[in-house]
Design goal:
It is a single chain. The chain has ten helices and 20 strands. By secondary structure, the protein is α+β, with helices and mostly antiparallel strands. The protein folds into three domains: about 200 residues, FAD/NAD(P)-binding domain (3-Layer(bba) Sandwich); about 55 residues, no CATH class; about 120 residues, no CATH class. The strands form three sheets. Strands 5, 6, 7, 13, 14, 15, 16, 17 and 18 form a nine-stranded mixed β-sheet that branches. The radius of gyration is 21 Å and the shape is globular.
Amino acid sequence: MATSEPRNIADISPPSDLPNHADFVIIGGGIIGLAVARQLLLSDERRSVAVLEKESTIATHQTGRSSGVVHAGIYYRPGSQKAELTRRSVGMLREYVETHGLPYIECGKLVIAASESEVPLLRDLEHRATANGVPGLEVVDRAGIERREPAAVGHLAIWSPTTAITDFVAIAERIALDVTTAGGMVISDAEVVDIAQSATKVGVVVGTERRLITAGVAVVCAGVQSDRLAVLAGDSAEPAVVPFRGEYLRLAAAKTELVRGLIYPVPDPNYPFLGVHLTRTVHGDVLVGPNAVLAFARDGYRWRDIEISHLRDLAGTAGFRHLAADHWRRGVVESWRSVNKRAYVRDVQRYVPGVAASDLVRARAGVRAQAVDRSGKLIDDFLVGRKERVVTVRNAPSPGATAALALAEDIAANAAAAI
């Protein structure tokens, strides 16, 4: 299928067009928030739906800074929401992009055990993926790795031929067009600064001028801002959302032929992160990364992005204090890899030895909104809660974009039940 660049959606409403009331107000214009709005309108076209996005464009944060991988469902605990919704959503997503002429390439993924000591973990992944119904899986040896990725090395690997790549920004923009075509509103530059509830409605306050929109139900799909907005709506401060910055490098154009599709390590089962991997994108480049370091601001894409109020809030949560005490050594390793390019490259060379430090340039960074419970445990599954008339998506990191269409069905049903 031919690829397409993200399109600008002219129908996104300026903040001067804020409505006074909507049946449903969606806070957050990433792919999940937009998909929820679309689903609400698909279920009942008579509904009034408004999406509020604090930035000037939609899909700016997690959606716009992902690697574009459509996950097949290899990693997730069988029976979990991540497993079930990812598998359900892949077919929905493929059909959607084919309908609208958006890019979708099944380039396949190798998850490589670099040494014999990693084979038991690889076998655990194989059992998970099989239980989740991931199609076409094979376990391949060194020769099988080389046939699929001639520049890669490893002891043993899982080959997932249906793992794909796409453009989630283009998909989000197409969904936004669906919303506006169906009579909904997608409003940019509309930062929510307060939320208040009564027995019959929700008041959503927007911007420094404090414009009030009333709603039957509000749905918070705001990534790193979700716990803060939940508190404004009267919900608990925990689980807290902890932002982790993932920094990417990019292969120089002359070296992109080293990677045909997707090359991943066996992940550490103690963390929901997948490790530094090599990812071909639909635009032809190859991303390397990401690592995972604590961000010092909710939108902390650089080391120098520091938000004192955010750090103070984190320090005040029991979950983060336990997390820091239990995993500071891992944090030191990730931080060292962040500032030392050679350490980063050594990890990559375990899988593709032909990559040299001179072949890599700094690329964009993303921030993962990761929920942490009171004990300091990183919450692995999706987490959606409801406080009266406010539904809050507390945890929807990767594979959140892959699962967005199926997850949106569940969130929309939850929201409709609250009205």
